[in-house]
User: What shape does this take?
Amino acid sequence: MLTQERYKLILELLSQRDAVTVSELAQYTNISESTIRRDLNALDRDGRLKKVFGGAVSIRPIEGINEPAAADRDRLMIEEKEFIAKYAASLIRDDDFVYIDSGSTTLRLTGQIGNTRALFVTNGIVHAQRLISKGLRTIMLGGAVKPRNSCVIGSDGVRSLERFHFTKAFIGANGVEQDAGYTTPDSEEAVVKETAIKRSFASFVLADHTKFGKIFSVTFSPLTKCSIITDKLTNSGIADKTVIKEVSL
Assistant: This one.
């Protein structure tokens, strides 16, 4: 088989799965594993894939600065988000001081929290309303409001956070990628997320599997700084850099 034909088959399988192993590629192409490794090295040098230990992952284009409105995101991956939120809620104890970030999955977390004496801080307006409606002790960050997401952002929000020391933080993310880390399209939101993580003893990113492999314009944390709670792991390179709780549906 010609070299370019092998490359085409490798990229074809990778486009279907996002991540593949050397053995899977060898079986798919009927080519030896040593040849596959050489091909992966060449394709990696050309920037057509990302070679990782034991295989390769696809290179995704940067998603940029655009994101759907909060109401639109809340209608996506509903069942997966509920399972993620349910597990996250089970981590909250009566003596916790908890930060809940804005986002569609973290919003579902507020609905899963049961009776608790924990104290909650959030930058999400709807999040705060739901916590208060359940009789939970709640602090709302002060600062400029981002209308599209109904959340507090900017320097005033950051200053509000800097006086707190959280036991746990639950953070939303738009993208999760092994090299770019956790990303978001808004630089002001990114600073709030980054500050909350720094002020927390333990931080958890809540993200369904559709966020994996996506890169938005601003990184707010490397993978190693947070554990991640997800419904399905789709990118093997992520596992090398973070603690993962994969919630079965």
User: Anything to note?
Assistant: Residues 3-17 form the longest helix (15 residues).
